[in-house]
Amino acid sequence: MSVSQNQHFGLIGQMFKSDYSWLCARVNRAMNCPQGAQDIASETFLRVLALPDPSAIREPRALLTTIARRLMYEGWRRQDLERAYRETLSQAPQLVHPSPEERLVLIETLLEVDRLLNGLSAKAKAAFLYHQLDGLTYAQIGERLQVSVSRVQQYMADAFKRCYLAMVQP
Known about the structure:
- The protein has about 170 residues and is mainly α.
- The protein contains seven helices and no strands.
- Helix 1 (about 5-30) runs antiparallel to helix 2 (about 35-50) and helix 1 (about 5-30) crosses helix 3.
- The chain starts with a helix and ends with a helix.
- The model has no long low-confidence stretch (mean pLDDT about 85).
């Protein structure tokens, strides 16, 4: 282990000792779940550990708060997707219920699609999903979203551009 790696771990270790309990308490206030708060705080420090230069951190608590907040939002978004998936699945005939392994793959795929479309407006995301999952035409989507067909075309172009960029970027 090099000297810089030792310094890196030393800085993170000091931050952990001084701020872990504080971060757990802060996250717990938002989540009202001590175990979940500990998980988020631990994951936050793992993310900090992955940073290339911890000596560049000027406001450790601000950084920790930002990372923890993002992790909470990701968790909540995952729960929302899983809940929507379970609701949809509960309405399907028993013959089309996937195995637990297939469910996991489907949920992971939904999360990846959600990340891919992150940054698009809610209507643009909805347009893409209506078209790709429900097979609706642009006119039908326009009616549902109360926008013009040309606006739906713009939404779709933005979404397809994101998909294309995700495929060509490593």
